[in-house]
Amino acid sequence: MARRRGFFAEMQHQAKLAERRQNAKQRERAQAEKRAEAAQRAAERARLAAERASEQDRKRLDREAAQAHVEARIAEAEDATAELHAKFEELDGILTATLDIDDFVDLEALRITAEHPPFPAEHLRRPIPVPAPIPDPPLPVKHDPKPVRALFGRKQKEQQAIVDAEQQYAADYWTWKTASDELPHRRARQAQGHALAEQERERKLAEAEAQYAEETAARDRDVAEQNEELDQLISGLAYGTVEAVQEYVAIVLANSIYPEWLEVSSEAEFDPSQAELSMRVLVPGPELIPAINHFKYTKSTDEISPVAATQKETKERYASLINNVALRSLHEVFEADRRGIIQSISLELGTETISPATGLPTYVPFIAVAARREEFDKFDLSSVVPAATLEHLGATVSKSPYTLVPISSAGIRRAR
What we know:
- This protein is α+β, with helices and mostly antiparallel strands.
- 54% of the residues lie in helices and 12% in strands.
- The strands form two sheets. The protein has a five-stranded mixed β-sheet.
């Protein structure tokens, strides 16, 4: 019966796994923050008390601190016990947890639309600003000779000042003349540089737009293909085709939310001639069940240790788990199949483990049960005792699943 999940079932399964992991991380983060805040408050109280305390007060505070430590350790043991019992409550409520949930899957809700990221090179769509024009060089100015204030050699110095002024003007003129002559070339090079930069920008823009258009088209194609597969699934389910029914059942079971530490997987095959679904459900082995009743704190050793549950309690809890999972699987499939395509379900539930005899992986079946829709739909699962319900359905059940005793008769029963 080995079948891989279809695309939509795998998509739902991975989404649920991600949701479980996220929820677990959020719980762990909240618990860690709570512990850190409590420790910080306690440390601050202790610091303030120590600063105010006299020697006599310090002795009293030491006693109080020791007592506070004991109380904190007791609270820690109680928290561990509460967490353990919460896990047991989740295990015991595996069936009831799904009864208030409509297991029908609206396949139209799986239809998707393409989500395109923003164009990554938006800056390339903005033209490069035209550079400011190179200004004309300022005209040279002929300055008057510097005044001479000397008493001796005045005339000679005045003549030299005139020569210096003329030479300075000549130098300024030739500088202006050279700059003016070069100006057309400089302006041409500036315009050419801007034009080349614009050409490069437009080239890069064209490449980026072409790549973005290609990626957008690929996303659109993927979405169109997925929606086309969905249309085929919806159409096939309307006609009750084997592949469509099996894919829909896989989606339903992938949607089933178990605790993140409880991995349940299922495979199913549909026989249209009998309108019957054959299911195999895998659950974790008995090591999943903590063989602990509670945690206690021992003051003399300052240790928190588990107190073992009785073997009877642990065995009964694992047997209850597999009974609940079996009925839950039947319920979820029947409820999700609103068209009534599946009229009966033959279910086998077991676990995969390592054979103590061979050391090789082996499958151990615990429950084989068959149920017809018309009978099962009449049950009020909120009020049943799962073991009694399985017995009523004529199920074959392991005498001791906790010790990996398989069911006595091999194979899956057919519903009658």
